[in-house]
């Protein structure tokens, strides 16, 4: 639980830093435009729920799944990979990327199931 709280706090600090200091938004080799577009596509509450499921044992709600699917896979992949590349997390990067893909698949399936025909 302590590690999950640290990850969630790190994510919030990262988002605040990105908002306040654009030069911290991405590493040189990441497309800054994509990062900037992705960060604003999802509510902070849902972002934290998604991060807690990918990096911990949280559960993403159906409304947050809908937001995630609207955000798009490329954004989801980019944001999770960026966080997973942090030095404190990189040792488990493959695990996090697998969970990222599982969260995406789950959210797509529940979003389709509850969408009006």
From TrEMBL:
Residues 37-108 form the Prolamin-like domain. Residues 1-25 form the signal peptide. Keywords: Signal. The keyword Signal applies. Coiled coil: none annotated. This is Prolamin-like domain-containing protein. It comes from Brassica napus (Rape).
């Amino acid at each position: 639980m302590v590690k999950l709280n640290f990850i969630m706090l790190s994510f919030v600090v990262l988002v605040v830093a990105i908002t306040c200091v654009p030069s911290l938004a991405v590493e040189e080799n990441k497309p800054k435009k994509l990062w900037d577009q992705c960060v604003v596509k999802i509510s902070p509450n849902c972002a934290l729920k998604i991060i807690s499921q990918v990096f911990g044992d949280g559960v993403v709600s159906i409304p947050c799944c809908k937001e995630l699917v609207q955000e798009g896979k490329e954004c989801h992949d980019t944001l999770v990979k960026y966080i997973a590349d942090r030095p404190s997390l990189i040792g488990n990067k493959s695990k996090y990327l697998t969970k990222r893909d599982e969260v995406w698949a789950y959210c797509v399936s529940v979003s389709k199931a509850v969408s009006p025909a």
